[in-house]
What does this fold into?
Amino acid sequence: MIKFENVSLSYGGQDIFKRLDLFLTESDRSAIVGPNGSGKSTLLNMIIGDCSFQNFGKGHHTYTDTILLDILPQGNIQVF
It folds into this structure.
């Protein structure tokens, strides 16, 4: 389970998330969509633990260790 409660994140004075709530269970499959620069990659990196909102944001998060998470970076895709 992944649970974010009332998460707010700012960077350079710009709000990226404001009072975000997110709840995902082990059986969920989700997609995150939005325009460029809206914080999709930042949210995914927060979920997989690559950047911590504790360092520059507010809110509460809970993770269980039964979830397998990964992200495919945008710059490493090769099309043949």
In short: The helical segments are 40-48, 53-56. The chain has a mean pLDDT of 76. The chain has one domain: 2-71. The chain is about 15% helix and 35% strand.
